[in-house]
């Protein structure tokens, strides 16, 4: 896959993950959940790419496949290594995979449970360094440097995680992720578990790191307001699929997909899927759909647009044909993709300008 453009660091191509659904005493497999269903997007070096969507849409599954914490069912994850070599993470294994591991790092959602409570901060941050054979003295120096970089006082290096606040713990998680100077950091809802005031501090830290160490970030969130503060490009996920992908301003000012529009309308509210989606959910709860999928009705469900049951614009075509993610406005300076049969009309009727 050498045709990957030079300015891209990651290209995710038709990525899928299906989880078996098991029921009963014998744990028989009664169906599958398509947690990630044909997802494609790419990330430019030095930028922050936002992946947003409601809980259960497949964000964590996508993130975990990219860092190869879990194996994809199908698809490609093309990654440009610092050497310039492009590898498909989806198919790497053994030593080749290990060599790449330090180059892509994950920041976890929950700073409370993701750090081993029995390890002092110095060891937590040094763990990836040790795994890559760094010597004690070099590790100590690097830990001090990293603590300073993320705004932690190096004098606290021997303290344990419980002595730190949620925001400070997330700084430890970020320092640890940066230890090996990864070319890509995947941050899976890194601020969702934090208070709003602390969220802002962590977002500012990530912005600063982007300037100072040229961080390339895949930033996952369920909240568009957080995405807006940080990201250059945004992909919106719904039920395992990307429904819209564009440069941030274009997405916020001219959303093309009704789901993006719904999320945007909910932005000022503290709960990102507030009233609008609740109304839609009265008749078609997401949980009910999931069960239908899991019990074999999946194929019927996937014939049409996954959003059709909740969409105010849905027509017969939407219920019968799944819209592919297609380039809108080919003449625009930045590409804008949407998976909606009615993307053009919807833009005129419901564009949001905030
Ligand atoms: N290990 C697993 N086994 C079975 N189902 C899973 C597993 N992990 C996630 N899922 C399911 O996959 C879907 C996507 O989950 P996830 O990627 O965690 O979504 P998000 O991070 O967007 O909330 C959900 O329906 C979830 O229940
Ligand atoms: Mg998640």
UniProtKB/TrEMBL annotation:
One of its GO terms (molecular function) is ATP binding. CDD domains: ABC_NikE_OppD_transporters. PROSITE patterns: ABC_TRANSPORTER_1, ABC_TRANSPORTER_2. Coiled coil: none annotated. Pfam families: ABC_tran, oligo_HPY. Keywords: ATP-binding, Nucleotide-binding, Transport. The keyword ATP-binding applies. Residues 10-264 form the ABC transporter domain. The keyword Plastid does not apply. InterPro entries: AAA+_ATPase, ABC_transp_ATP-bind, ABC_transporter-like_ATP-bd, ABC_transporter-like_CS, Oligopep_ABC_C, P-loop_NTPase. Belongs to the ABC transporter superfamily. This is ABC transporter ATP-binding protein. It comes from Natronomicrosphaera hydrolytica.
């Amino acid at each position: 896959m050498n045709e990957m453009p030079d300015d891209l660091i990651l290209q995710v191509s038709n990525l899928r993950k299906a989880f078996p659904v098991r029921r009963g005493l014998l744990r028989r497999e009664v169906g599958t959940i398509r947690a990630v269903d044909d997802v494609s997007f790419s990330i430019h070096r030095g930028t922050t790419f936002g992946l947003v969507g409601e809980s259960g849409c497949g964000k964590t599954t996508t993130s975990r496949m990219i860092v190869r914490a879990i194996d994809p069912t199908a698809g490609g994850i093309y990654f440009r290594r610092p050497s310039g070599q492009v590898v498909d993470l989806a198919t790497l294994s053994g030593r080749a995979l290990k060599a790449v591991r330090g180059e892509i790092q994950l920041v976890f959602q929950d700073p409370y449970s993701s750090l081993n409570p029995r390890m002092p901060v110095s060891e937590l941050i040094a763990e990836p360094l040790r795994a890559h054979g760094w010597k004690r003295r070099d590790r100590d120096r690097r830990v001090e440097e990293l603590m300073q970089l993320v705004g932690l006082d190096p004098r606290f290096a021997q303290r344990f995680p419980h002595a730190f606040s949620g925001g400070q713990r997330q700084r430890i998680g970020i320092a640890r992720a940066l230890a090996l100077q990864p070319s890509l950091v995947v941050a899976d809802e890194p601020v969702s578990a934090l208070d709003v005031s602390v969220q802002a501090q962590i977002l500012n830290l990530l912005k600063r790191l982007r300037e100072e160490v040229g961080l390339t970030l895949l930033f996952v969130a369920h909240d568009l307001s957080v995405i807006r503060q940080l990201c250059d490009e945004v992909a919106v996920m719904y039920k395992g699929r990307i429904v819209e992908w564009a440069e941030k301003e274009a997405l916020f000012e001219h959303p093309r997909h009704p789901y993006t529009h719904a999320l945007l309308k909910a932005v000022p509210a503290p709960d990102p899927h507030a009233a609008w989606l609740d109304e839609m959910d009265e008749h078609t709860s997401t949980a009910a759909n999931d069960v239908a999928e899991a019990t074999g009705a999946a194929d019927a469900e996937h014939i049409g647009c996954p959003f059709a049951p909740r969409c105010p614009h849905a027509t017969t075509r939407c219920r019968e044909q799944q819209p592919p993610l297609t380039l809108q406005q080919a003449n625009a300076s930045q590409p804008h993709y949407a998976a909606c049969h009615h993307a053009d009309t919807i833009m005129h009727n419901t564009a949001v300008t905030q």
